[in-house]
Amino acid sequence: MGNPIExxxxxxxxxxxxxxxxxxxxxxxxxxxxxxxxxxGAIYGNFENKDAVAxxxxxxxxxxxxxxxxxxxxxxxxxxxxxxxxxxxxxxYVTNPPIQGGCPVINTSIEADDNYPxxxxxxxxxxxxxxxxFKKIIHRGISEGQIKKDIDVExxxxxxxxxxxxxxxxxxxxxxxxxxxFVSKEIDRRVDEISL
Length: 196
What we know:
By secondary structure, the chain is mostly helical. Helices cover 76% and strands 0% of the residues.
């Protein structure tokens, strides 16, 4: 692995599986060297420390989820169908997560407290970006006559996101997609209520 970019990518891809399954605190640099087959020197040649690996790995995982979600959103022709596509994507996500260990946003948000301020900041930025995209979908739906004008966009987007994430967390904890499916059906119902 002589290419520095390939080496860095390998570290990130192997590390996220560790961080997302074992947790950031429990994952050691030795775990990363074992998973990658690289020396500590090779890892430190690409990252300042374990925290820098954690941030890069989280960013990679979050972007992978966002990219998949974006494909679903773009494929839906109307704002209501885009909102439903989001909920359906996350329901499938429970049984077929794009990152080993489940949702990197949920997993990281639970662990990224005061001990990992930069990681916490990255999670908060990801959540804000995702909720902002939901708000844009709703605003566009209003302007195109697909969604009722009297909706509180800020409230709907926040409850929408929190409901989805809560459903994922419960389903992953229970080891089945039952709650996520109920959440998806309820979101479909709520989207129908605000649709024209």
